[in-house]
Amino acid sequence: MKELGCSFKIATSAPLSKTSKTERENRFPFLPYLYTMSKKVRVRFAPSPTGGLHVGGMRTVLFNYLFAKQQGGDFVLRIEDTDQNRYVPGAEEYIMECLQWCNLLPDESPYNGGAYAPYRQSERKALYKQYAEQLVQGGQAYYAFDTPEELEEMRTRYRTADNPQPQYNHILREQMRNSLTLGDDEVNRLMGEEMPYVIRIKMPAGEQVQLTDMIRGEVHFSTSEVDDKVLLKADGMPTYHLAVVVDDYLMKITHAFRGEEWLPSSPVHILLWKYLGWEEAMPQWAHLPLILKPDGHGKLSKRDGDRLGFPVFAMDWKDPRTEELTRGFKERGFLPEAFVNMLAMLGWNDGTAQEIFTIEELVSRFSMERVHKGGAKFDYEKAKWFNHEWIKKLPVENWLPAVKKIYEEKGVMIADDNKFIRVLELIRERATLLSDFWEQGVFFFQAPASIDAASIQSKWTEGKTAFFNAFIALADQLPDWSAAPLEAAFKELAASQNIKAGEVLLPLRIMLVGGKFGPGVFDIAAIIGKEETAGRIRHALQLL
RNA sequence: GCCGCGUUGGUCAAUCGGCUAAGACGCAUCCCUUUCACGGAUGAAUGACGGGUUCGACUCCCGUACGCGGUACCA
Predict the structure, then answer these.
(1) Nucleotide B37 C1' to residue A128 CA (A)
(2) Can you give the pLDDT at residue A21?
């Protein structure tokens, strides 16, 4: 217990923002040591299963994972499904699939279990009430019987220009129907009648709550500004506020990372840790900056992706109610390595110019202290650049299956893996997304559906027709069907016929590929083979 | 409205009080390449504003402006 208190003192005593960076970096190398001396690091990702997992959520996963692995700790996945109205079937499995795709798997989860199971809050329902009751007994919470209509009535009644959103707070609770205003007899009567009620936290007036955030340093709140949040709902389920605190405590979470949108309600959580008598065990907080829309302002949302034409979810998400399909990074042709790398750079860097990081590098270099305070606008162009870099970096074998799948889904079966690898190696630097391998590579496996004849027709001559016929004949005699001798033969023939190579090179490309793109023509000819090359030339000659 | 958090090129960003302000994406021009890419070179483009503190401020402090978040029996 002693070293535990000690570690917290060191970690929280001096506000990070008030210390110099030198001081900070001198201090932090010791933290891993302290963590292991005091207790095992345990972090959690705690999503609500309400739909697709967007970039912001995935980044929270990543930062949790990196921190846990770096500190030799545990990464827990906890499903926060306390709102039955918002529960979406399939969303939970989908979250797991996203983590699996990125290879950021939790050590404990509803799927692989763990010492602190269950990991689904709906399955822990019975746990929470006792803590809420404990607070009522201690005078830090109270029963409230106000119906939704009464709450609405209160909000309209007290709404003014200066106070557009009246809160159920230390002032207004005096006007409401709760165990603070009603008296014991009335409360007992209502309880006896099974009148629905909630338990609200009794926020003190005029106290200061201080929070040490690993990213932001000291943050202060006045309790007068915070309303009496509902802790336990009328259906017996806890709200987020109660559930996070109870579960983080029960699951021995040491570091709680979440989006910045939670900062304003953190005083509620801190007070809860204190009121429940668990202050010593309170995790260290880090509120991650938001990921913003590329244009305009505000949090990045699914809608922005639809509007601007880029994915926002990690993987394809099909809403079971509307049947609406939202495309994900995976299906758009992203490599998980690139996606993870891109995510890491959204709000963090290691202080050097390095931008391409493997997961191992991220695990060793990551530090919460270097996470930015300000939000970052999402840039899809940059995201694609990361993917391009990873396509160039990773061995072909690594992503070959994914590309093969694209081909086979489009009806082109790959019989010869060696040929496929040769092709992929040849065109990889032309691909930004895995899906680009289709346009850049189909012509190796089937003749182009249409050829850009317009580009060569105007300058076409009888002499060129003769040249290509001669080339077919000549090529047929070639002992070595590979790029270099082919090129030599082609150029020699052109010279002998007084044709500039440049005048027939583009036509050859268009005959073989269909358009003005792709790798070297002779490399293409070498791969598709003698018969196919001759066939495509003859076919094109007929069209001309 | 109130509370909280932010603010370096179009975007992501480095900067530990010495700045002639890195690097990347994107953009432009050029080289390489008889295609398209890759690669290479070059260029345009940045400290919100006002006060302090200091020999010196992008950096520290205070205001202002702007942006974002929160203000639910949603998370």
Answers:
(1) 60
(2) 37
